[in-house]
Amino acid sequence: MRINRRKFLGTAAVGGGAMALVSCTGENVATGEKIVAADNGLHPAIAALKPMTDGIVKITIDERKARIAKAQTLMAEQKIDAIFMEGTTSMFYFVDMRWGQSERTFGVVIPAKGDVAYVCPKFEEDRALELLKKDYGSEVRCWEEHESPYAVIAGIVKDRGVTHHRIGMEERVRFFIADGVRKASPGFEVVDATPITAGCRIYKTKSEIALMQRANDATIAAYTAAFQTMKAGMTQGELSAQISAAFKRLGFNGSASVQIGKWSALPHGSITPQKLEESQIVMVDGGTSCEGYASDITRTTVLGKPTQRQIDVWTQEKELQSMAFAAMKLGAPCGSVDDAVRAGLVKFGYGPDYKLPGTPHRTGHGIGLEGHEWTNFTKGNMTPMAPGMCFSDEPTISIMGEFGIRLEDCVYFDESGPHFFTKQSIAIDQPFG
Q1: Quick one: pLDDT band at residue 1, thresholds 50, 70, 90?
Q2: Which of 50, 120, 122, 171 has an alpha carbon within 20 to 30 A of 337's alpha carbon?
Q3: Are the C-beta atoms of 390 and 206 separated by less than 8 Å?
Q4: pLDDT of 329 over the 70 cut
Q5: How far is residue 426's CA from residue 123's CA, in Å, rounded to a whole number?
Q6: Where does the chain hold its CATH 3.40.350.10 domain(s)?
Q7: Is the pLDDT of residue 2 over 80?
Q8: How far is CA 168 from CA 83, 172, 311, in A?
Q9: Phi and psi of 289, rounded to 5°?
Q10: How many C-beta atoms surround the C-beta of residue 23 within 10 A?
Q11: Topology classification of domain 81-192
């Protein structure tokens, strides 16, 4: 679980390799070799990390063409003539291009029939031509500063052929653009394109899952090294910086939030300055991305010797996470996973529902090119679990004023059912399987 769709996730390319576990004396546990910190003062555990960037396989042109073809099939089923999206994640997903959003409309039209076309401010045309991949469509229609980009979008749709008089807007398209297209398209209905975009993006291919696996592997490697730097008096910011440094050594951009003691009961933590203390709960939540595909992992441990109370609640949380995984069945509704966790909470004397002490949020969220995307392990969600879906598994036990325990690992489905990307934690003092 991370804040604001994981704003702190980097978008740079990342990758694979090996990690050396380092003892508290600065020796490689496997070889006994003495590890010397780098000149920049890195902790030995972090200095020992090697890049994990070998062997990454990017999404191919053919796979992206298949995505466009699937979107066109879904458009026919949904009776939509075309969809429009701005330069956000869905554009990257379909045509391997990132642009961003400003007051000037830029985007791409994917028609139900015919070639993709881009809508661009005229003075940005050269830049757009540099960035676009002609494999998916090379037409760029421009608008001058005094002209309407909405009319340009409507013109592309009309020129590609109209059957249903319906134009779909991707969910991140801002209102002023959707409304502008509606006004520029008399006789057309502007509708939600989520059945198209989510209908493609929810179901990951093996190549997408492989990229997510690499991001997860790198996150565990970064955490494992950074956790060895923990000491009494360290601030939450200092531990976060160690995690970021570990990611950099591995060849990734990544980071994590850190919450300590009573502040760990808040699912997204607190901005209150915190310092590590002996026998205090430490919750770390974050991740990275590989070719844009995200990881999201939470580990909760303790600095020093845990109390029996901490051990007991941690063990209940581990059981809740396992209950959720056991409820993941192909064809079953996503909501049934959350139902299993709510029943487990009541069994342990928490809840019911979202009441605290207990879990104040859904059991898990979809994940892929964004840290949070469709669909969710939420009460009442009747979407059937299916091959290609990816989720977080992250029930929390929040005990306000005392501490919180969350264990989060992500899951992918294939034809045989669900699989964890990462090994579950073993114990409160053994956060890595």
Answers
A1: low
A2: 171
A3: no
A4: yes
A5: 57
A6: 81-192
A7: no
A8: 4, 12, 51
A9: -145, 150
A10: 13
A11: Creatine Amidinohydrolase; Chain A, domain 1 (3.40.350)
